[in-house]
Amino acid sequence: MKNPGSFKVAGDFLKEVSLHDVRLDPNSIQGRAQQTNLEYLLMLDEDNLVWSFRKTAGLPTPGKPYGGWEGPDVELRGHFVETGGMNDVLYRLFTVTGDPKHLLLAHLFDKPCFLGLLAVQADDISGFHANTHIPVVIGAQMRYEVTGDPLYKVSRHLFRWTKEVAYADYYERALTNGVLGIQRGTEPGVMIYMLPQGRGVSKAVSYHQWGTPFDSFWCCYGTGNFLPVKWSAGDKLALQLPISLRTEAIKDDRAEYASVQAILYGHYLLCGYSNGDWDIKTGLTGSVSDWIAPVPSGYNNHLVTFSQDFGDSTFVIANSNRSITMEKSPKAGTDAALHATFRLIFDDTTEKISTIRDAIGKTVMLEPFDFPGMVLVHQGTENNLAVANSPDDEDSSSFRLVAGLDGKADSVSLESESQKGCYVYSGVKYSSGASMKLGCKSASSGDGFNQAVSFAMDKGE
């Protein structure tokens, strides 16, 4: 290391700029290299890449294996889709978990027989495989800070630690010659394994020569493709796993549950909610996936309950077999709590609220949590409320959330959009099972009416 006396952790010196703020000129050598790399990755078939993994696991093997180092008879098969530098990865993990087991495991990948030579500055590392040993050096640097992968990043850290310009010069040369130089122009998937260092030598007639897109997969193909790929805080990765669903009889020998089936996704048990008959009737569908409708994750937003206090008791609006009734406040986590949970569906589908109180003044429909796709509807004034399929005209299912008519700061009332002045009404007789209806305010309506149409709105189950 040059200038070791000035070594210290880099701090804010040369602080990284977020890659979200960086754009490559598409006509620059870097921009062309990135596009070439992208075109190659899009040429690759996922089934072919994981063929050997599936074969080893005893799974069906659609597609066909790629050649070269990904061939099924090569001990390095699978390396293209794996990561190098395990000590680097585990040191990163330790910074997240603080678990000493992760720190110990990282040490086990440090390869002291190699790092020891570096520590004593012995000139005895010629001929070592760079793609294997450089990640070990990076992992050693991880004792000081989180880092990346290849050799030019080693020089970056040394530059930040020592401020020695020679390392920055090396960084630039390594990036241009050692990274961009392994691609053959703009031909996707044509890379070189070893860069010849002799005078007058040619890449084309070197030890391995130029590779091919589907029958080489040397280690330079892994690092060469993955170097331009960077993750930053806040990035999200979505995985779609084509694991088939299946059913199994539940492990319960009681006669009444003999026909009940569990739905399994891989080795995970899927939890579902049903009303009425527990037996699954698949009809003419060909697979389990065809007759299961997943609940969208967005349905977790805007879940609410509506309640009223009466004496020492609290009652909630609940869906009871598609009838809307008042029920005693249930315990959290029970089926009854689900019956008392509704999702606010806004008239403006782009509506975003940070708290449920922000919904005051908005037009909403109320979807029972246990009946996705259905909504609460009125059937005219003084008639009972019900649950029905979402109507086309939405007149009977749209309500405006307004400040509670009882005047309390934390209450709301639900006014029908099609019957102005009419509200979701609980009545003045509080008992479990009492039907809800649409009640209209009149000149003679008093405090009892205002109380009966005012509810506390809280976060649902």
UniProtKB/TrEMBL annotation:
SUPFAM superfamilies: AbfB domain (SSF110221)
Source organism superkingdom: Eukaryota
Gene source species: Corchorus olitorius
Residue ranges constituting the Non-reducing end beta-L-arabinofuranosidase-like GH127 catalytic domain according to the UniProt record: 21-81, 82-152, 153-224
GO BP field: L-arabinose metabolic process
Name of this chain's protein: Non-reducing end beta-L-arabinofuranosidase-like GH127 catalytic domain-containing protein
Molecular function (Gene Ontology), one example: alpha-L-arabinofuranosidase activity
InterPro entries listed in its UniProt record: AbfB_ABD_sf, Beta-AFase-like_GH127_cat
